Amino acid sequence: MAHQILYDYIPRPGDYFTTFRVLWEPYTNRVSLRFRSGREAASGLVGTPEETVRYLDIRARAGAPWNSGAPREARERLVRLSDIARISSVSDQD
Length: 94
Prior knowledge:
Blueprint: E1 4-8, E2 17-25, E3 30-37, E4 41-47, H1 49-61, H2 69-93
Antiparallel strand pairs: 1-2, 2-3, 3-4
């Protein structure tokens, strides 16, 4: 199965992030975080959904712009994905 776009930010003029995307590969349960701003960029920070949530939490502790907007929305999607995966694995064991 191909990857799925879990979150794709559409910037408005003046926004800090020009790109913020989370891709999920269900087969491997790996997430790729891609973002770009005027100061930094990453093309494919890869990890589990839980690892990516931890990364976003660490960045959010530093304050804006990581503690609101696109990073927070992406984090919420990843938390929901983790909850769904956890429920699925428990029901598979029954």
